[in-house]
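S.,

Sequence below, as promised.
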Amino acid sequence: MNSHIVILLTSVLLSAPVHATTYSAEAIDAQIVDAKTNQPLEGVIVVAHWEVSRVVPSFVPIMPFVNDPRGPFQLQIMETVTDANGRFHFPAWGPLSVPPLAALGDRDPHLIFFKEGYVPWAISNGHPSTFDYSASSTRSSELNGTTIKLKKFEGDLQAYAAQFTNLSGNLNFVRNYRDDTCNWKRIPRMLGTVIKIKRSFREKLIFSALPNLDDIRQDGCGSAEEWLKDYLK
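The prediction came back faster than expected:
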């Protein structure tokens, strides 16, 4: 092998960021209440996901690594719903391994909350860096043990439909056509609910950014309508 290539490859490997090769997460327990009445909210759909960023060598000395064109992938995805006391629980998990040049950022997990009639909400941990290779291999949520307040929406249907733009963006992580992970199957309750709402808006000729069945179809993943049928009723 050409000595210059050997030197270049060696320098790239030496400059590779050091990070954990496996990750685990602590359990998450919290309560959700109405922001105005402080009464527990039953039936809030809660999604948690831990997203892994990955890079590839660029072989350019001033910028040895660039974002992998395949994009990030999901190390773990969970979905649950609050009980009569407004409480939800995600169990601890791990360890799960990640490939070389891949790492969780230091803001995971990303949590998404939705109950029809309320303003959708999403949040991650508040650390400043989004790709900190030195962060702990055992992760926890800053919302663990807290009380979360959701605001009831006040306004007409047109204004309510506009509230879903951010929710749609937050759900994009399950619509990665660059892989065959079928991640959308992991959050059937959330997707079934928002697709039903999308249909309701459409019947009233109201636009919303929410996904529909065509948005989540992937080759090799089977029928989205069949998979979500219990939540589309």
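The two ends are 62 Å apart (CA to CA).

Coffee later?
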